[in-house]
Queue: 2 jobs
Job 1
Amino acid sequence: MTDHVKLIADMGSAARTAFAKLSGASDAEKALALRASAGKLRDDRDLILQANRSDMQRAGKSGLGDAMLDRLMIDEERLESIAKAVENVAALPDPVGEIIDRSAPPNGLVMERVRVPLGVIGIIYESRPNVTADAAALGLRSGNAVILRGGSEAIESNRAIHRAMVAGIAAECLPADAIQLVQMTDRAAVGAMLKASGLIDIIIPRGGKSLVQRVQDEARVPVLAHLDGICHTYVGKDADQNKAIAIAVNAKMRRTGICGAMETLLIDQDYPAPGPLLRALIDAGCEIRGDDAIMELDPRTVEASEEDWGTEYLEPIVSARMVQGVDEALVHIAEHGSHHTDVIVTEDQIAADEFMRRADSAIVMHNASSQFADGGEFGLGAEIGISTGRLHARGPVALEGLTTYKWVVRGTGQVRP
Amino acid sequence: MTDHVKLIADMGSAARTAFAKLSGASDAEKALALRASAGKLRDDRDLILQANRSDMQRAGKSGLGDAMLDRLMIDEERLESIAKAVENVAALPDPVGEIIDRSAPPNGLVMERVRVPLGVIGIIYESRPNVTADAAALGLRSGNAVILRGGSEAIESNRAIHRAMVAGIAAECLPADAIQLVQMTDRAAVGAMLKASGLIDIIIPRGGKSLVQRVQDEARVPVLAHLDGICHTYVGKDADQNKAIAIAVNAKMRRTGICGAMETLLIDQDYPAPGPLLRALIDAGCEIRGDDAIMELDPRTVEASEEDWGTEYLEPIVSARMVQGVDEALVHIAEHGSHHTDVIVTEDQIAADEFMRRADSAIVMHNASSQFADGGEFGLGAEIGISTGRLHARGPVALEGLTTYKWVVRGTGQVRP
């Protein structure tokens, strides 16, 4: 057993013990603990900001890019947001103990499915230190133990935030091992987590595509993630022209770097005003890579390569294509999409329903911007990630996705004939 | 690409296409198709029985044991049960399209989670040819495509049953590739299925421990299964003595070979009548392997080794141990159990609730025999398997466990601020 495997095995065992203890904690205890953690984050302001400055200095010297440095940086305002987010999670309803359904089959038994925590959750993330607090809060709120493994560039910030989170929950006498931070910053620790089946119940990667890809390729533990967000907006022939422009521009340009950003625009060949739609995107600063029909409409468009249809740009670039009806739009999405979020813009309710029934995406939308693909916007109060997998939880995942259920069967002495 | 990988890739692609077509099929079409399949199974009686005789002859010559031969055998009565089971699945309510929940967050969007089929399901099973019809029926009823891989000893029976199933669904113009049978009978075909991620969404193994173990070890596709059914019955100090005897004897002896059979009996040290309880089991033909305290109670008991506590006998043998209260019972179960089904017998409601809250098992029961752990008894109408995993579906799995959901979001032109 290598040091890394042993370390993760020890952390996993401690997490399982903590998880068992947590299952006896009440809703109020978990909420109070998180409020205490939020308070401790504020109390530890100087320590956390100092740790972050040290990370920033080291990262600057090692030549980390500006975007990464920005993700890493914590100032007073950001620290307050982190503390506030923990309080928001504390205020969410506890999913544990919810009775999902109840039945009474003829054998006289009464069956309930009762929501219980998932178990031990491994979170693997990159430079944003706020994930340390976010993931710990969501995990604890739903009764789970978490093992956190952040990026090496953020290790001092993560340690300081982790200390505050643990101090909060320990103040409420909840088990400190419910929130553990992997102190080893080399990649072998990640490898050990990915293979810790039986100890870690699910791995959630939070970060760029290369991280998610590695986790999906190597994991022997179930993974909840999305690799790509190749989101389509299909503007049907009966689309309202103002809605089409507003939705397309927002879906691409509001924030180009998020997974719910539109990457491909499909315009029905019978949509009467494709020109103004393209113009609005271009005027908003978007590059359009189109097929022949698109290129004929506006000289400022460039030619799309085959590769463009499967590219998540995360930049002000969109691929665009003319399609013939809902069928062809769906064929394109089935071939090139990533099962994340796909949108139809139309005033034809029947076409909208057909599109939403047949598109095999975690999220299908009618007359709305794909940028709404977010747990907060979906009313979940928070988000640990978005899943494009088909099992367990799909789309935005918050507290409910961090639970499972058990069957609770009550009898009066029944034996099976 | 080896032949096997190519074969499975081709079957997987065909299955995905069939799955997409099936998602347009109505409840009535799917039910009618299964009724047609049941009719075809009856029409093909001579063909199926003849194919089975051929399998039986080959298996007899190859020295297959009596138990295996019995599992393989189909006579008229068993064929009628197979057809009837398909009709029963046809009569179950279609889970697809069910609205799980609906919300309307302040952004004005209306969100629904709508149940949809899981996708492509791989079933890997051993000698029982009825699984061919069962799994195909459950898969189709919930809108999924299935890829079936049965044991080589049953290949002719499976082919004949598969032909009948496909003829039925084709008669209703549903896609024939929704039910595919792997014709290659060597183990490499199983290996290719286990690695077909992206093509097969979930693998369900049906068979003995060595099959399940291999599937769990090698699969790169999510697996829904249970490896062991080490079920405990804890007789608390306040147990009703008649209930305790009836439940323990039934839990072990009704059928010793099923996964819900009791393997370990935990008796509270303050339970006043342990002797009669042990006597009843021994009189029913059960061997008892006990700790020192148990051995003192009855000279017919033998000593349990450490290994006994983690053994699924599937025979008229039970391990038995004295424990001190709910706590020690739970510690024993946490250490040696398999998260399948664990039972408390007591008249103390508080102890029962505590046991059921803290036991980390897919199924927890109060005052009932663990042999009820079965989808039919749970009112699910059928069962594709029992899951001791924590993700997606837990305990007995039927149609709902073969579905996932999508988020259907309806807007009126909303863009995200």
Note: The mean pLDDT of chain B is 95.
Job 2
Amino acid sequence: MDVAGSIEAVRSKVGAARRRGERIGLVPTMGALHAGHMSLIETARRSCEYVVVSIFVNPTQFGAGEDLAKYPRSLESDLAMCEESGVDVVFAPSVEEMYGSENLTWVTVEKLTGALCGRFRPGHFRGVTTVCAKLFNIVWADVAFFGQKDAQQAIVIKRMVSDLNMPLEIVVCPTVREASGLAVSSRNKYLGEHEREEAALIYESLRKCREMVESGVDEVKAIIEAMREVLGKSPDIKIEYVEIVDAESLERLERVRGRVLAAAAVRLGAARLIDNIVVDAGRE
Amino acid sequence: MDVAGSIEAVRSKVGAARRRGERIGLVPTMGALHAGHMSLIETARRSCEYVVVSIFVNPTQFGAGEDLAKYPRSLESDLAMCEESGVDVVFAPSVEEMYGSENLTWVTVEKLTGALCGRFRPGHFRGVTTVCAKLFNIVWADVAFFGQKDAQQAIVIKRMVSDLNMPLEIVVCPTVREASGLAVSSRNKYLGEHEREEAALIYESLRKCREMVESGVDEVKAIIEAMREVLGKSPDIKIEYVEIVDAESLERLERVRGRVLAAAAVRLGAARLIDNIVVDAGRE
């Protein structure tokens, strides 16, 4: 496995693979790799001859007062995990290598970034789309892999790729969960043992939504109330949002129709946790 | 010569050239081709085996009240000129093909777009950078060619390419001028015969700047006054701006130092005309 710290080095490695006619897959990460990332890498491995993992804690997607400084960093074990899972090259650039002395250019996606997490993390998605545009241009992959856990991110990136005619495919992979149902996330490291148990209520609230929809309830207000009730079982969970939106436009709904995204963001101890499921109500 | 109306068609043509190992050059235009464009095409021809010319009057770079509707369109003669100059494929998409039903994604460059024309055409450069990002992603060229006449555009695009790590080179070609000194432009078509003579004052004012710098004057205020005086010889010329800025940062200067950009924008009859020169004062 190669490790490239510079744009030039990763381009040279990927360029050689491309000249060999290999299909290039990119898994963009912020490191602190876990089973969710491993699942993305395995999926990439199955459809691509050459797999690139980028590890870059992107400062421009963190807001003031967010967890940039304490975000978990574990490059050595990340590299070992990549090596073990058959990654071809890890691109782990410095902030300076990625942004130089002054970045003036931003990629923004309107509307979709105003919903859900966008309301609570101004500038977050601008940082995500900008760094992804950069990574896509650096690596020139045929396909990039993202997790459904960050549903809004995946939708925003797909839209950017489509609107800007970027010549790559975006594949969204299912959320990986712990036995309790808790979505695997680098930020779970912030949780104490008891908080980790409480955090399982997030997925429980999403399952509640699915149950209600499947049993015929279509009033969004009633479903959200029931979801909030589930989350309320923990006195430590502070709800940021619980929403049911159209799974494509992310627009709010009054009635559940077609494919909807049920999504929640909560604060628990030092962590901000998000999770979601897509429910197909089958009523168009 | 091929003519492609769809993204798929131009990609297929360019992809074949790429597989033959050819260097791909892109000349992005809004049509109404003239000697300036021909010079870009000739330069492309000299360094590229495969030359793509895009012809697209990009609505997102026109502001409200600007000349989108009456912008000169002459596809048939444009195609003949391209054919004659050895272009390999013309990409002439519809607005729908380029933007679909709703574009949500924008590429913006800060700071550099706040100077010169950016002050008078809000949103203009956002439209330019967005459509260029799209064209670069569609064509996947090795190099794209722009004219020095649109100096700020060239600087903004170069910055976008560098900031977003776009894998292509930007080449800026010298301004082509009529015998009178008037910079060749599609918008010269808006000028009557007498206005066309008066328009030569724009370049005369720029030459005045060069003369003064070369004779040792370094006070920007004095130079701009003299330039305005030259333009004032025509009662029909309405000055939008006359500026002397740093040729890289586009920041305003009080004293001429190093490479400076002298730039003017005027209204004359139905036309808005811009022109510029770079003067190297050689004093860092």
Note: The radius of gyration of chain A is 19 Å.
